[in-house]
Structure formats: C-alpha cells, structure tokens
Amino acid sequence: MKSKLEEAKRFLEDGGYTCVLIQQEKIFQSQKRGVQPLLELLDTDPHWEGAVAADRVVGKAVAFLYVLLRVKAVWAGVISEPAKAVFQEAGIFCAAEQTVPAIRNRANTGFCPMESAVKEMRDPWIAREVLKETMQRLQTQKNE
Does pTM surpass 0.90? Predict the structure, then answer.
C-alpha cells in the first residue's frame, strides 16, 4: 500500500494536480480545487473501493467524500484534524505533510465554506448532499 500511496503522491506533484486516485491500473486526476472533483467523480464513477489517493488539501468535507469512494489510504499535503478523525473512524489510513486545526478559505479571511457546512456532521451521505447544495448556493452568489 505504501508504494501505491507514494506513486499517487508523485503523480500529484509531478502532474500539478489537486487530487489523484489510483486503483490498480485505473487512475483519476484533476486540477479542479476543493470538493468539486470528488463530487463529480462520485456522480460519474463511484467505484474506487480499495484505491489510494493523494490530495493537496484535505478537510472534513473532502474526507467524507473519500469515505464514500471507499478508498483505503489518503496522503495529503495539508490535512485538518477533523479530517483525520473522519478517516480514523472509517478505518482509512492517512498521512500528511502538515496537520492544521481547520481549513481556511482561499482568501484566508475565515474558514472554508465547505468545512463550515459539514462541521457538525457525522454521516458522509448527508454531508455529500449538503456539499452539493453549498456549491450551488456559492455558484449562484458568484454569478449575481
């Protein structure tokens, strides 16, 4: 498992991706940020059981999505303490370069809105729906 996780990490860093999943010979990579690539993956190709993942930033919101994808291990550049707790509860191995108390928003003016949306949640399925709604609301606000 460790060699596959290292492979995913190298793929992430060398390709300039935000997230990478590897399941045997099947590879997913994205340059989209936040929860968007994993929400899209869950809608289009949710069969990643036993995969390993590498991701630049993993907060609780992203951790819930990896739980739903049923990965077995995640490496993160930055991981939040709540994300680590989600992985521990789900039995998913995680490793990271840096652990932080919470994920901040892109402007660094507060907490990430996705993290805030799922802060008190424990159910990944409900979290997924809340994340979709939050993304739609933020996109609508952005377009107004």
Answer: yes
